[in-house]
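Example complex used in Figure S2.
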Amino acid sequence: MRLTYLIITLAVALTGCGGKQTSDNVIKENSKAVDSLNTIKPNYAQGFRVRYQDEMALLDINDPENKEAEQFHFALTGKDFSGTIPEGYTRIKIPVESAICMTSLQLSNFLKLDIPEKVVGITSTRHLHNEKMNEHLKNGITHKIGIEGNFDNEVIMAINPDVIFISPFKRGGYDAIRNVDIPMIPHLGYKELTPLGQAEWIKVIGLLTGNATGANQIFAGIEKRYNDLKSMVDSVDSRPTVFSGEMRGGNWYAVGGKSFLAQLFRDAGGDYFLKDNTESGGVTLDYESVYTNAAHADYWRIVNSFDGKYDYNVLKEQDDRYTDFDAWKNRKVIYCNMKEVPFYERMPVEPEVVLADFIHVFHPDILPDYEPSYYHLLKK
Amino acid sequence: MNKSKTAILMISLGISIIVFFILNLLLGSVDIPMEDIIEILSGRKNDNAIWSNIIIKSRLPQSLTAAMAGAGLAVSGLLMQTVFRNPLAGPSVLGISSGASLGVACVVLLSGSIGGVALSKLGVIGEVTITVSAIVGSLLIMALIAFVAQKVRGNVTLLIMGVMIGYIANAIIGVLKFFSAEEDIRAYVIWGLGSFSRVSGGQTSVFIILMLLLLPLSFLLIKTLNLLLLGDSYARNLGLIIKKARLLVIGCSGILVAVVTAYCGPVVFLGLAVPHICRGLFHTSNHVTILPASLMGGASLALLCNLIARMPGLEGALPVNSVTALVGAPVVMWVLFNKRKSDI
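Predicted assembly (724 residues):
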């Protein structure tokens, strides 16, 4: 009798425990599944769309500038999904645990989501500032896979990531990886025409890595701050003109009037010097057309990588003709040194900070005590 | 061809230089009225500071650079074709321009990889660093060629040696490129496209002075060149020390290429094409005629190419290298088709 009692008690206890554990797991699994399939919806980005059906998230990626161009389709499913994948879709099991990033823009999404450990391979480490990433590189958690166009396939196969993020319109070299049979997902954030659109790609990374909720929250914060700042300069009376770029090998490399940067200047209460230009990417101009358009522009924005102290003398030594610009004469050069600032790996997900930097320069009275992060006015 | 015809052709070459030069000043992506240009050039003060800056600081130096570079490359190409008695020889054949490219590649591409020493740190000014590295690179290769020239007898052997050295230089560049970051490769590629507008301000003056010193030197070689045309044994019988003469000619040609490449990047084709065009036009191989003709023809063609590269409506300038070949190649073919059999 006592034995029976003992057995029963034990059995009850065991089943009780077991039962509890199982239900916990189920809840956990469910919430994970719910989170990883948590809805994301682009409001600014033009390059991706997500539809939800039968426990799948269908991710369609297209060129934000040219919707007619080739599209890329991915069906995001849980690990043990057994349904059928729609035709033309590549199945990706989420959450993705490991990924290769081909560009700093892609990396910036991972860093902002604070999941650097999921990045197991990167291309360029030249301007890498992030401490964790550098540590991971040192410890071998993250690997260098070569440069775009010249990948080390063996390294990629050895890492065997869940996905590879690519920029298909750049230098290429992807055909070789195609054989490796790892899904390649184009990250077209760099083609987005608005800063918020570019930042919104963090949602795609969030969705894929099971951090959709976090990504949504992060983006909502960016969006709010960005729009708040933007509305502060909506009613400014004066809009300073600004030009951008430098001479390289006899040509002036700038970006077009419909570009991301032009939009940033507009949102910061300024006017880009190529206002009527309809290009969204880079444009090559000669000295005389830039000079005619920008000789009297108020500000000059320069981003480069310079070792040492960058000042007006350096500019003068680079090209004597720079001194003819009003912006040089009046000491109105807005400068960002990529050597000192983690420009590419953070800026894409901090458009509101860049915006504030510009507003601080263009309209100092609106943000008087602001401490700039990326761009500052060159003093001497 | 009689003397008067030669004179007429020479004069028309001279006129073409003047016409293209003026057109280079007149045309650009910004419209500037003729009267204003004349006013600016004559030194009178023009109200429009932007226009005068464009003319004085951009179009004028660029046109001068184009003319000088074209003349230098054409002369250099002619010297190479004569010394090697090979119609396919050109300034780039001995690997001297590859040497310049290697020098630039080392600075531009390696600067990023060695502990992040930026190109700019090497000399504050990127463009000057590039110029210096190009000159150092090409002179090193030239020294190597000169050394080889002392050791080998045959011209063909020397030519092949030069081509091989060029291959080695290009191979090293390839390796450097492979390990370089995207933006450095881009900087290098831009340099490699060639441009007459890269130099500005004080650098233009340095370039022009250098060319004005070097180009007349080549005229001292006319007699030697004519003797070389006769073939080695005839030349030797006429008292020419072949090895020394060869070294002089290659040296002169090499320095010209080195300087032009340093300031304008590796501008191809002009050096190969212009001597052919001139030989076709003047129906002679006598260097008394061909050398000045090549010099002027080179200047003229380079100005024309520069004009086309900056065609109004294009905004940014086309790469000079594409234009030189696009314009030059049909001209060479046309000249060769019209060439009389006896001249070949």
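DSSP finds 14 helices and 19 strands in chain A. Chain A has a mean pLDDT of 83.
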